[in-house]
Design a protein that fits this description.
Mean pLDDT of chain B: 94
Radius of gyration of chain B: 21 Å
Mean pLDDT of chain A: 95
CATH superfamily of the largest domain in chain A: Glycogen Phosphorylase B
Largest sheet of chain A: 6 strands, parallel
Strand content of chain B: 15-25%
CATH topology of the largest domain in chain B: Rossmann fold
Low-confidence stretches of chain B: none
Number of helices of chain A: 11
Helix content of chain A: 25-40%
Largest sheet of chain B: 6 strands, parallel
CATH superfamily of the largest domain in chain B: Glycogen Phosphorylase B
Radius of gyration of chain A: 21 Å
CATH architecture of the largest domain in chain A: 3-Layer(aba) Sandwich
Low-confidence stretches of chain A: none
CATH topology of the largest domain in chain A: Rossmann fold
Structural class of chain B: alpha/beta
Oligomer: heterodimer
Structural class of chain A: alpha/beta
Helix content of chain B: 25-40%
Number of helices of chain B: 11
Order of helices and strands of chain A: EHEHEEHEHEEHEHEHEHEEHHH
Chain lengths: ~350, ~350
């Protein structure tokens, strides 16, 4: 089959949205399909986003491809008689964040008009798809609540989970994530002020906001956390990452209200590490049962510090919960076989 | 500096332009201080009513997080960006070639309107571009004739010049590249009926269609040229191509009105082999000078035969022209480092 996998992207930014396209394309090719990846630019400024979306709508890949798999919006509006969506998020400023402080558009009549048009467009694009898959229960619920479209949850698998291993439960809590405001690495640094054991924290990753990175460095300096906090602000090679996971005590991932479960929470499973997260982190809590295979805590530095200390002081428990995470995620059938079956079946 | 290379694509089609775009990105990434990515925008030119839509689509896309754009083709170069350099592989010839049967745009009111739209957009875009390079003298002339705009010729370099080191000449003339009617390898085979010097001909490359290969085999059979003509009709590795070139007396390349110099010519000149070509071969003539770096003869078998004989009989002269060809090529400095430097200047 000739399959186009289409997505929007921001040039020179890697992230979950791009990995999902690359890995999916690779798996489809391995099954013998001809695959073409199409990344289209998109800038989500309210003034032009509707016109940009119209450009997507006018694209013709129906003549050349047997099937279209659309990932990141507004790729979902590209027309095709055999379209499958793996819907990763809404334009949330116009959906669940509309009535929150995170709304990025001013409260003016034209914003309301734009919102109505976006909803209408989504309703059409979602309904014309042959199947709507999505990456988490959080996003599935939004699709149902806002668009009244039932969607099937297909968690994005890791590229090669078998590469991960566990060698020790060391002294270090590891947070492996893009460094952005909503990923809340600052919350973890605050937590480190409250720990009473010699537990350590390592933050790995880069981001687009130099000011946020600077503020993290400033927090470390202000509170004299040098001894116990390491910040690797760079893109780490896969082998380095696997090595860090292999020796970590546990994995921390505390973003604010994310759509996806987060790759680091998935990677924790084959590395047999437990996950520390917060109740307002979004989809990641779909993977974690509090006290069983991880901690789901209030977004409160002292509470997080308490969990860090417990894991440090009781390695047997860190191990037990890590094993439980491996078993729990292992039982969820998050595999490429299932993805392909749902994409192509 | 973030440099985005912008090209068009037809899903599931791969050719020389795609190859060039990927190599350009690779070379840019190897340049200190430069980060590069390729944006491939789908372009569907049929039916003709797609053309106005494609112009709209490309003009509507928005780019951010990009310092510079290098655009290669219509309509990719219409994507707005404030710092845009063009390296034109070609314009959309269908909009410019009058009465030459090369267009699918009908000569109706609507057809003329669409042509006008393409030209207006071309001119506006060229005016706004920081700099216009073109990939050949022919493209430069067309650009000037069509739009009055001036372009600077920037040939696309080879990726593996080190393979074409030259070598001892065996008694054959080599005709490489894709095999098809427009590249006219059949004229060379027919010329072999008239040679008297014992020179051999080796034709090697992938036929575009099976019929293109069969045509040559039939000619060899009909004229009893076995033993004088070797046909090795398949896609070869670069090392295999280089071996044929390095061992040849001279190379032959007879495309009909080709835009560019052609990789076959570049390979020959790099290996210090003169090139046999014809008076209507287009861009090849920019660099092949009759009696100095090769032979330029009428596209007729007897004339070609005379040149093939000359290559064999006047071997010292042939070698001298080969040395002159290599010197002329080095003088042009068509290498990736200087190409990148000019594109970023």
């Amino acid at each position: 089959m000739k399959i186009v996998v289409a997505s929007s992207f921001v040039p020179f930014v890697d992230g979950g949205g791009r990995f999902i396209v690359e890995w999916l394309a690779e798996r489809l090719r391995a099954e013998g399909h001809a695959v073409e990846r199409i990344y289209l630019p998109f800038v989500d400024t309210p003034a032009t986003m509707m016109e940009q979306t119209l450009a997507y709508r006018l694209i013709d890949v129906a003549q050349s491809a047997d099937r279209l798999i659309a990932i990141r919006p507004p790729a979902h509006v590209i027309p095709h008689p055999n379209k499958v969506l793996w819907f990763i998020h809404h334009f949330r400023a116009f959906y669940d964040l509309w009535d929150s402080e995170y709304r990025s558009v001013p409260d003016r009549p034209e914003s309301h008009a734009l919102r109505r048009r976006l909803w209408h467009m989504d309703d059409i694009a979602l309904r014309e798809a042959r199947r709507v898959l999505t990456i988490s229960k959080v996003v599935a619920k939004r699709l149902l609540d806002f668009n009244r479209v039932p969607a099937e949850v297909v968690y994005p698998p890791l590229h090669r989970p078998e590469q991960f291993r566990c060698e020790a439960y060391g002294d270090e809590i590891l947070c492996f994530s893009r460094v952005e405001h909503h990923k809340r690495q600052d919350l973890l640094l605050e937590a480190m002020r409250f720990v009473r054991s010699p537990v350590k924290l390592r933050l790995c990753g880069t981001g687009l906001s130099p000011t946020y990175h600077r503020s993290l460095l400033e927090t470390v300096r202000r509170h004299g956390l040098h001894e116990r906090v390491a910040i690797d602000y760079r893109w780490l090679r896969e082998e380095e990452k696997i090595e860090l996971f292999a020796h970590a005590l546990a994995i921390a991932y505390v973003p604010f209200d994310e759509d996806g479960v987060g790759y680091s929470a998935l990677e924790a499973a084959p590395a047999r590490k437990t996950v520390v997260t917060t109740s307002d982190s979004g989809a990641v809590v779909e993977l974690v049962e509090d006290g069983v295979n991880g901690y789901v805590l209030p977004p409160d530095p002292a509470a997080i510090a308490g969990a860090f200390d417990r894991l440090y002081l009781d390695r047997a428990q860190a191990r037990r919960m890590g094993e439980a995470h491996a078993a729990h995620v292992g039982g969820m059938n998050i595999t490429w076989d299932r993805v392909l079956e749902r994409m192509l079946g | 500096m973030k440099v985005l290379v912008v090209n068009n694509m037809a899903p599931f089609v791969w050719g020389g332009a795609e190859e060039l775009a990927e190599n350009l990105v690779r070379r840019l990434n190897a340049t200190p201080g430069v980060e590069s990515e390729l944006l491939r925008l789908p372009f569907q030119w049929e039916p003709v009513e797609r053309l106005p839509l494609e112009i709209y689509i490309h003009r509507t896309f928005r780019l951010h997080n990009t310092d510079r754009v290098i655009a290669l083709k219509f309509p990719a170069y219409l994507v707005p960006h404030e710092r845009k350099t063009l390296w034109l592989l070609h314009q959309f010839r269908q909009a410019y070639d009058h009465g030459r049967g090369e267009t699918h745009i009908p000569d109706t009111d609507r057809g003329r309107e669409i042509r006008r739209l393409i030209r207006e957009n071309d001119v506006a875009c060229f005016r706004d571009s920081a700099k216009i390079f073109v990939n050949s003298e022919i493209t430069r002339r067309r650009l000037e004739a069509n739009t009055g705009m001036t372009g600077e010729v920037l040939l696309a370099p080879m990726n593996d010049p080190e393979l074409f080191a030259g070598g001892e000449a065996d008694g054959y003339v080599f005709a490489g590249g894709r095999i098809n009617r427009a590249k006219r390898q059949h004229l060379l085979v027919e010329a072999m009926r008239y040679v008297r010097s014992g020179v051999r001909l080796v034709v090697a490359g992938p036929p575009d269609a099976p019929a293109d290969g069969e045509r040559l085999h039939r000619l060899v059979r009909e004229h009893g040229l076995d033993g004088h003509v070797t046909l090795d009709l398949r896609l070869m590795t670069r090392a295999e191509v280089a071996r044929y070139v390095n061992g040849a007396l001279a190379c032959a390349y007879l495309p009909f009105e080709e835009d560019s110099v052609g990789y076959v010519t570049m390979e020959a000149f790099t290996a210090a082999k003169p090139v046999l070509t014809v008076t209507d071969s287009g861009g090849v003539l920019v660099i092949v000078a009759d009696g100095q770096t090769g032979w330029v003869v009428a596209p007729e078998p007897p004339a070609l035969a005379a040149a093939l004989d000359a290559a064999m009989i006047q071997r010292r002269r042939t070698a001298e022209m080969g040395a002159a060809a290599r010197a002329a090529w080095r003088e042009l400095d068509v290498t990736w480092p200087s190409t990148i430097a000019r594109l970023l200047s």
